């Protein structure tokens, strides 16, 4: 338990653990924002122990220059040995729950796609590689669509990239469907939560169907980069018809589903990160969370220890921060 007033750095600690787990920031749109103001680089280092063996995980971010010399903007290291991101991610699986997670329900489809990616990339190397290949292929295909429109190139140049996107995109859709089916399989277990997956299937037929529109827009119009999902509670879409309380409860249930799905896939409990969320939950959900907390390593933060049940406080290692 990390205790301290606002601005004392509690969230930075939890975000650092999440960063080492996923290789991505939960909050920053640009990773350069993770470098302290007026500094040239930042470093996050963690020691992970599993089955008696220890691994040192490290991510180094720069602005491209350190001490006047060019440097990679982002480096991943395991035991001081450089690694690719695809081989680094997932060494310490975790689930992060914070008040901003409400965006998953109320914000744009891109937020929900990012949530699915962050969840699945951490625990599934096959998904991780497919997502990376898909993103690179999508960028290249969109460039070629622009050249077809502006320079009159033949559509034959798309053949290789169509095949790559179909192969990798189909796998992403399949894995996302598996996660959503898992959450929907036991609705009572996760608070009567139901997810409705609006998938954008990618196939030769669909690419052919939208070929003219794609060239005109210079953008690939079908595929998992267009996916979305809706969150329902008792047949009501919570984005449109849910109260704040219901939306918070739904996010709590979704995170419980994520925890259980990760546990099933990797054969162990992921680290649970709780960023000052006790003030956001009602009594019933606090009690549910208290039951979950002892099941895995849990790192929590709060501004006020009085929000934490006395019986739970006695079991926690408490670290106090000052601003």
Key descriptive features of the protein:
single chain; 323 residues; 4-stranded antiparallel β-sheet
How is this structure best described in words?
There is one protein chain. The chain contains 12 helices and 14 strands. The protein has a domain at 1-93 and 268-323: Rossmann fold, CATH 3.40.50.300. With 323 residues, the protein is α/β, with parallel strands linked by helices. A hairpin with a 2-residue loop joins strand 6 (74-78) and strand 7.
Topology summary:
Elements: E1 2-3, H1 10-22, E2 41-50, E3 53-62, E4 65-66, E5 69-70, E6 74-78, E7 81-83, H2 85-88, E8 94-97, H3 103-106, H4 109-123, H5 125-151, H6 159-185, E9 193-198, H7 204-209, H8 211-217, E10 228-233, E11 236-237, H9 238-241, H10 244-266, E12 271-275, H11 283-292, E13 298-302, H12 310-313, E14 319-320
Parallel strand pairs: 1-13, 1-14, 8-12, 12-13
Antiparallel strand pairs: 2-3, 3-6, 4-5, 6-7, 9-10, 10-11
């Amino acid at each position: 338990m990390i205790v301290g007033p606002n601005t004392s750095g509690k969230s930075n600690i939890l975000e650092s653990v999440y960063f080492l787990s996923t290789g991505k920031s939960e909050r920053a749109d640009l990773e350069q924002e993770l470098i302290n103001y007026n500094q040239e680089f930042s470093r996050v280092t963690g020691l992970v122990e599993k089955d008696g063996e220890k691994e040192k995980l490290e991510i180094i971010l720069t602005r491209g220059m350190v001490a006047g010399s060019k440097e990679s903007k982002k480096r991943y290291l395991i035991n001081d040995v450089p690694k690719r991101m695809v081989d680094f991610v997932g060494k310490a699986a975790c689930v992060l729950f914070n008040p901003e997670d409400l965006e998953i329900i109320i914000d744009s489809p891109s937020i929900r796609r990012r949530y699915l990616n962050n969840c699945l990339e951490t625990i599934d190397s096959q998904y991780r590689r497919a997502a990376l290949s898909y993103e690179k292929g999508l960028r290249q295909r969109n460039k070629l669509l622009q050249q077809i429109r502006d320079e009159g190139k033949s559509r034959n140049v798309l053949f290789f990239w169509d095949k790559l996107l179909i192969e990798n995109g189909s796998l992403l859709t399949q894995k996302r469907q598996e996660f959503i089916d898992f959450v929907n399989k036991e609705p009572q277990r996760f608070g009567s939560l139901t997810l409705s997956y609006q998938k954008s299937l990618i196939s030769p037929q669909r690419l052919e169907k939208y070929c003219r529109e794609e060239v005109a827009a210079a953008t690939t119009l079908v595929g998992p980069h267009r996916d979305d999902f809706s969150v329902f509670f008792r047949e009501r879409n919570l984005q449109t018809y849910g109260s704040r309380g219901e939306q918070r409860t739904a996010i709590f249930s979704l995170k419980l589903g994520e925890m259980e799905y990760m546990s099933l896939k990797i054969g162990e409990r992921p680290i649970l990160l709780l960023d000052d969320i006790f003030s956001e939950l009602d009594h019933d959900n606090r009690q549910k969370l208290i039951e979950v907390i002892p099941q895995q390593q849990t790192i929590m933060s709060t501004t006020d220890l009085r929000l934490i049940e006395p019986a739970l406080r006695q079991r926690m290692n408490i670290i106090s921060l000052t601003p």
